[in-house]
Amino acid sequence: MDLVRASRLHTMWLLIVPGAPLAAALVLILVRSLPPRVANAARLAGWIAGIAAVLSLAGISALLPALESGNVPSFDLEWIPAAGVQFSLRFDWLALPFLITQAGVTLLAVIYAWGYHHADERTPFFYAFLMLFAVGMSGTILAGDVFVFYVFWELMLVASCTLIAVWGEGERRGAVALKYFIFTHLGSLLVLVGLILLYSATGNASFAALQSGADLVPGLVQAAAVLLIVGFCVKMAVFPLHLWLPDAHTVAPMPVTIMLAAAMLSMGAYGILRFPLSILTAAQMAPFAVPMMVAGIVSELYGALMALAEQDIKRIIAYSSVSQMGYVLFGLGTLTYSGIAGATLHVVYHGIVKALLFMCIGLVIRATGRRRITELGGLGKAMPLAAVCASVGALAISGAPPFCIFASEWMIFAGGFHTPYVGLAALSLFGSLLTVGYALWFAGRLFFAGSTEAALPPLPARSRSPWAMAGPTTFLAVLALVEGLFPAAIFRWVVAELASILGGNW
Amino acid sequence: VTGSVWVILPLACLGGGAVVVALVGRLLARLSPRLAPARNGLLALLTALVFGASLLASLPLLALASREAFVGLEWGSQGPGSASLRADPGALIVIVVALALGLIVAVYSGRYLALDRRYDAYYPLLLLLVAGLAGMVLAADLFNLYMFCELMSVAAYALVAFRRRTDTAIEAGFKYLIMGSVSSAILLMGITFVYRSTGSLALPEVRAARGPSLVMASVWGRAGLACLLVGLAVKSAFVPLHTWLPDAHGRAPSSVSALLSGIIVQSAFYALLKASLSLGLPARSLGTGLILLSLLDMTLGNVLALAQTHTKRLLAYSTIAQTGYMMFGVGVGLRYDLPAAVQAGFFLLVAHAAMKGLAFLCKGVCHFYCDSFTIGQLRGTARDLPLVAVAFSVALGGLAGVPPLAGFAGKWFIAAQVVRPADALVYAGLAIVVLNGLLSLGYYLPLIGTLYTLPAEGQGSGGRVHISAWMAVPLAALGGLVLAIGFCPGPWLGWLAHVGPYLLMLGDQVPPR
């Protein structure tokens, strides 16, 4: 009896994870139609979104004990019986790191938006689409069926594209949104064809059926793996498929940029872990190891070089994402235990650090109204909090030891050295020097160097950042340090994932 | 006369309804000129009633047909030179879709037609158009096929040229008339050739009664079949023969375009399938031809749609592309003996009718209230007509294949079936389909974006418009359908389960001696 009740409870929490933001989005659309006083409606909208994000996070933590005790909370509903499609959600160890990153980032981005987003009569819609974006991501992670996976995958794209097209900064937002949509949709279509190949091989769309045995013709295995890996690499913005990223990240409003960079990019890594890596055997994946590692290194170096060359502070950090996703792809490509664990860990830590850096940039842009790095400098005195946080972020992203990314990069490189391709691993290791270069240059120039162009009008006097922006920034900076000192908790989750998902194959 | 009288009932409803509506229209015009403003509404309601009655009358057919698997119901006399109708599963789907769309369009016209007036001509023509369509797909012999096809075409010519105020409409109607008549002549020639070779006009269904195909055995028969295919290919706008379509669908009143693009073209495609398979064209060759043509169709349709500046022409080219996707599914099904692929193609037919109908009706509302004609003039729609903008986005998003809207499910089913046969042709085809999906975003997305951008200073009506219930209700109904098909494709797919086996049974031919 207790077991039944417990499993019902699990199902309820599982549905709340994507359901709360979805309900919030619907409520927010209704809020729009009763706007007597704009400021109040906007504040109410912010609170609704915040509560939904908290609920979503609460759902995940409520499900943790279930995972610990070896259950897989799941929810199934017949959807299209004729085509073997079910509406199925399941929450397993592989989903956990991604889901927790996504839900945490969403909550912090919403809180940040309270301070960042200026209120107008469309604000409830803004939060509604932010919530739909979150639904898309959590649904993608929780999907237990390829059809459901793809539906949420595209919802993620539609919602984020709308956010960029409508609330983007600058005149080019329409064009940028179109580019973003078409580019990532190309990736989605490749993924779709790959998924359909897998689906038609089993005749059943559920992950469980795929995992238990997709008997594909060898040629088809190769085709499906290539389609899926390339398609997911578009989402991860791996060079040369990254072209959409710098524009989209630069034009999007800051809360959306935070969600794009810290949560959405890693959906590509999730896809690679979920489909090719979990479904195909080690032998089937082996031919893709070197291409993935090489693509990872190229992306890593290219992103870092472009970050060094850029002038716009938002674009610098946007290119840093290209570089960081290169590490993740490299880690996945090693096909070793520690490489894959490191890549997964890197997704979580990159989420923390990238959100932190973008939040600092948001503070700077809000205070000064400028974005070119040549027009900025010496902000340390005026904005001590941002200076400290950005320094933490810069040190963390360059992999300095007491901060979190050190642990994940260590594992990724360790994975690299476990493969026969030690040269590639060494290249990747030395490539991380470039990361140190742009990260320290960025933080030093912005906060600690003097302004080079003396003719510029003086910066506005020290303005107090709203707590809604400063709070999450500080929290993430502290988190980056704490996670660096005590990575064991998250590491245990990641290992559990590898043991249960890849255990049989590797 | 033998067989089930149910088959003739929907047709009789439409034909009788057309006469009644025409008479009532004349009567109202004579009775009192003061009634004129209400006349449109009255006639629209009456027409909608006729469509509704016809839909009701076809329900028993649906029930019977679903019970008897895929053996159709027949009505008509047997023997040489006989005329008969057969309600097979595919025809029933096409008819039900056409009647439902007709019902919605009739209600919509209740306000929209204030642009064109001449109500007493419009509504009977609308009914005759659908009656022709229904007869054409029901026909179980070539005589009925030709006659009803002509009825449909003549009504369509008149409706395309209905907007007399603009000379472009007349021009488009004239072009359509010329191409349509030539194709009808070719069709008729084909029919005479077939008759010469077999001595019968029947489109036999059961293989035992049919034996080895006489048509395929003789030169006259083969020539006749070729003419038949070409004639019907013009009506279904296969690519080299599509040139009339963008003009006709782009210039007709939006309510008419919704019907023309949503179902008329596809019904001609079904007639082509039914006739050629019944006459003994092997399913495999027809399938191969359809696959190749469909790739041409979708590519050309999408590429040309990219270049359009007029919303309705864009939608018309999009119809060519979407019909291409349907043909691809059906073609793969016929070539590789996959009933589920045919089913998927018909699923897209149903979904497309709802989506394209909705798109044209939304365009019509924008035209009606904001006088927008080109894509650029659609700017500000979200401000002036917010709900129409939402409905329009749902339609376009569905056509673009954005999940979970209707078009996505259709494309998913087609793709999922199409990868079954491991064959280079199919993989190449799938690659082209995927590229086309990407290409089509290049015009659907900017169009959606345009709806939500504000017009330049001093343009647009400025200010929210309250739309009439005559238009709001059809938009809501179609929008609901698009969402329902997208979110719950299961029941719709189940409804189409018999088409695939039926067409394959028609195509399962004893080879000629």
Percent in strands of chain B: under 5%
Q: What can be said about the biggest beta sheet of chain B?
A: 3 strands, antiparallel
First and last CA, distance of chain A: 38 Å
| Basic shape of chain A | globular
Q: How many DSSP H or I helices of chain B?
A: 21
Oligomeric state as shown: heterodimer
Please state how the strands of the largest beta sheet of chain B are arranged side by side: 1-2-3
H-E order of chain B? EHHEEHHHHHHHHHHHHHHHHHHH
Strand content of chain A: under 5%
Please give the share of residues in helix of chain B.
Answer: over 70%
Name the biggest interface. Answer: A-B, 31 and 31 residues
Secondary structure: number of strands of chain B: 3
Judged by helices, strands and strand pairing, the structural class of chain A is mainly alpha
Instruction: Report on the biggest sheet of chain A.
Output: 2 strands, antiparallel
In short:
The complex is a heterodimer of chains A (506) and B (513). With 506 residues, chain A is mainly alpha-helical. Chain A is built from 19 helices and 2 strands.
Structure description:
Helices cover 75% and strands 3% of the residues of chain A. In chain A, helix 3 packs parallel to helix 14, helix 10 packs antiparallel against helix 14 and helix 12 packs antiparallel against helix 13. Chain A contains 19 helices and 2 strands. By secondary structure, chain B is mainly alpha-helical. Chain B is 75% helix and 2% strand. Chain B is built from 21 helices and 3 strands. Chain B has a 3-stranded antiparallel sheet with strand order 1-2-3. In chain B, strand 2 and strand 3 form a beta hairpin. In chain B, helix 2 runs antiparallel to helix 3 and helix 13 packs parallel to helix 17. The two termini of chain B are 34 Å apart. At the A-B interface, strand 1, helix 5 and helix 6 of A face helix 17, helix 18 and helix 20 of B.
Descriptive keywords:
heterodimer, A: 506 residues, mainly alpha, two-stranded antiparallel ribbon, 2 strands, B: 513 residues, 21 helices, 75% helix, globular
